[in-house]
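Q: Could you fold this chain for me?
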Amino acid sequence: MKVLLYSSNQKLKKKSGIGRAFYHQRKALDSAGVSYTLDPKDTFDVVHINSGSPKDIKRFKKKAPVLVHGHSTYQDFRRSFRLWRFIEPFFAKHLQNTYGIADLIVTPTKYSKYLIESMHVVKAPVLAISNGIDLDAYKPDVNKVKAFKERFNIKEGDKVVIGVGLLFERKGLHDFFEVARMMPDYKFIWFGHLNKILRTHFINKAIKHRPNNAIMAGYVDGDVIKGAYQCANVMFFPTYEETEGIVVLEAMASKTPIITRDIPVYYDWLQDKTHVLKGNNNQEFKSLIEYVSQNDLSEMTDNAFEVVKERTLEKVGQELKGAYQQTIETRKIKK
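A: Sure. Below is the predicted structure, expressed as structure tokens.
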């Protein structure tokens, strides 16, 4: 079996969750011994589309069964890009046209599976398979911590709060700033980038008026971001909507205490005070950050690590292999 891994405009998506997921898929398939190609002109038995148009899917379906990766939902598009209210009806139609013609759909969590299955046009089977995590890449490493500290001038005794994600309103970046404003003795660092013209006016204004202790790091990859996870007191992720949140998996793999918003995607696999700490508003988030600084949460981070061990790329590779086989069988049944 040979798989075509396809994603349109991959360079534009490199810094996004879809880009990270695409990279993870390649490593996962390598671990599972599944042959794949990135060249649509190559030969293949099944197509795995991460992003593309309905036209792309129809073209590929003439050659092979098509699995569509359900990275996006109506819900996580909202409060993201500039003019999202205007674009939303067109995006909704795009999702319907994309998911509606897939032979099989894979999406990261049971929550996103439920959302996609709720779309009346979806007739294909929907499987929940995590985006996965490379645990070895997030093992403790003093050199990575050093790289982070030197990059951001972190001194002994500094209390560091990090956030990671595209500069979307949906990610709660404005709340990150407001909590930073309430905690001037802490360093708040947000990792992520989005062209100013694509951001909402609300987020551009929030960035312009952020407090002095809130640092915009931009897009940072490699040792520095891994060192940030290992060094930070807490990863604060006040997102309003996710299909999974690869950055949460990265923090769990790094055994970083996590504070996140109490949202549906985490209901069934991340329990409050057992794996992460959950809050609902900025005052609660402030109190939780203070709690993390004053308490030993090693048991909680160990519990979270046990959960993320179920989402290794090796396991994801085997699950994707099974999904491809099911895609092929599903097409045969349709015929």
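A (continued): The chain has a mean pLDDT of 93.
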